[in-house]
């Protein structure tokens, strides 16, 4: 009871205040994330903002608002709150102060949790141990000795028949044998003679077939572009099933150096896909793992045979492309990821993002080391065999952007879940597949065109050159 003999309803007041403040804190958090996510000035939390916005805040804030309203209605109904205490001007000031304080609290917590204040500075790159490829001797035909005719009696002088002597038996003349035709020399490189028809022996050959087929699941798959060079080749397919759209590039390289990366060590230098490929020899590219966005400097990061970072890999799956063209994805929960062992086996690239999409046998996974499993725009890298890879880019429901960074339409579907992306990679026969940076970062570049939503800056791209 208060001094006027009225019930205090202290517990109800406290609960209502707690819910009101939680609503204010999360609302402020939502506003901060939303603004920075859509008008990204290059902070270090882009991937996490997608997760928080889509998985929690969209659902939690309305629920908290409803609960808060119910508690205050109870207070009003029971007489635990006076209407004069909730005058319009007073409420506005309470709301402003609460949101400002909640926003400061949210920023402090996130700055601590996500390391916004710890900028990733450029690090000195050290070369990874480069494997010296021992050239395979080209098979040459064994030399056939030239047939030497035996000396005739006249040449040796021994066969001269003296008068009255009987000539001896004649020495047979040896037959000449034809030298065997040498076998064709195998083509050196990752693929050897395999997929020879995909490449060009001279100038690059580019086609735009636009030939379509309907798959068993109803997907309309159209071959829209092919490139055949001497060292690199790819076929690009546009796939559509209902409202869902994605592109798959079937990639062939004879030299691992043709599967390259362009990157920025410093988060502050991140840029759009079109800025990466401008004035570059890139033929096709997708967004990579944005390692510079990791303000805490986690993971093993190798780019183009250069070691950028060698820190523990505890929280995300690791993907390694070795210099012999093989690929292995490491599960951070099940595999012991030994950086020294990986470095000793001549890696060329490594990515710390994920998750891995297939198990060790190439089957689709059902559980993932990731929290963002719901439908989302996706980028992925796939592996068939040394020299044979794939890029995948999946649209979501955001605006599509062309090469000039202009709106080129809107996606109709929300993207793929991790399970759906995993099943897609398994159905294509990949041995390994790895999820790259998605959301508004995704884009696939080819032939001065862009497929995707690349409205956020990214730190690196995975590309093919010839």
Given helix and strand content, the structural type is alpha+beta
Helix and strand run: HHHEHEEEEEEHEEEEEHEEEEEHEEEE
How many individual domains? 2
Instruction: Compute the separation of the termini in Å.
Output: 83 Å
Number of strands: 21
Largest sheet: 8 strands, antiparallel
- Portion of residues within helices: 10-25%
Approximately what portion of the residues adopt beta-strand conformation? 15-25%
Give unreliable regions as ranges.
39-55, 112-125, 131-137, 151-160
The shape is elongated
Tally of DSSP helical segments? 7
Mean pLDDT: 78
Radius of gyration from CA coordinates: 34 Å
Explain what this protein looks like in three dimensions.
It is a single chain. The chain is of the alpha+beta class and 466 residues long. It has two domains: 10-114, no CATH class; 192-464, no CATH class. The chain is 24% helix and 24% strand. It has helices at 10-38, 46-78, 88-114, 153-156, 273-277, 339-344, 418-427, and strands at residues 126-127, 205-207, 211-214, 220-228, 232-241, 244-253, 259-263, 284-287, 300-303, 306-310, 317-322, 327-330, 347-353, 378-385, 388-394, 399-401, 407-410, 432-436, 443-446, 449-452, 460-464. The strands form five sheets. Strands 2, 3, 4, 5, 6, 14, 15 and 18 form an eight-stranded antiparallel beta sheet that branches. Strands 7-21-8-19-20 form a five-stranded antiparallel beta sheet. The chain is elongated and about 135 Å long. Residues 39-55, 112-125, 131-137 and 151-160 have low confidence and may be disordered.
Key structural traits:
466 residues, alpha+beta, elongated
